[in-house]
Specification:
It contains 8 helices and 10 strands.
Length: 274
Amino acid sequence: MDAAAAEPVRIAENEIWRLPGQQVIVRIARAGQWKAAVREVHVARWLADNGVPAVRALPVEQPVEAKGRPVTFWVELPPHEAGTVMDVVTLLKQLHPLPIPNLPLDHLDPFVRVAERIEAATSLSEDDRAWLRHRHAQLREQWEHRPQGLPECIVHGDAWVGNVVRTAEGPVLLDFERASVGPPEWDLVSTTVKMTTTSAVTEAEYAEFCAAYGSDVTRWEGYELLAGARELRMTTYAAQHAATRPQWQAEAQYRVDCLRGRTAPPPWRWKGIM
């Protein structure tokens, strides 16, 4: 592969690059994420074997290591546009019923990297960071005693419109970094909080989402726990990056203020970053 003309697609926690003329996408993960990179490739190949429309890993031995970072290689998608709420539920309806395979999958941890993000969020006051630590501990304790819901399955782990695109042939699932075994409600709540927390999804869109899936996670007694975990993840993600990108400090602080009850009640108007 020739990387001389590589073009950046997205530079965030992971770096995504395109190799023009080669139909190859290169994903460079963070240092220490070798296990996650291996999992992504295994899950992608398992999805291909089961006919689930998803980005395909190149048929090469991978990941590879470059300067301490795991690198994976993917087939470039044809022309596409951003996915929709209905695209998300269409793909989840194909993913969740599949039998759990014998793959190197962990059980879902809704709080992966949250503690590290709080410690990295140096643009916040120490009082705000202490509050986030307490909220993290509180939610983690609740997670250990969560109520039973739908049968566990393979969950995508970060199932929202940002990880779905639409090609001429239909929706395609992306990004398997958080794939694991766990309650399907975790995948559903990603869309729910876009309505209840940020207003990015309308009530009509959400009603259509629930009708298509056949379940409304807000009616489950564990909903507040999962929604709280999602809100905490979204807040600490913004706060972590605000520490090195001043243009996002106001948004990160606003999210903390919302969670701490310093603003009007939800839904709030959180803006996307990265």
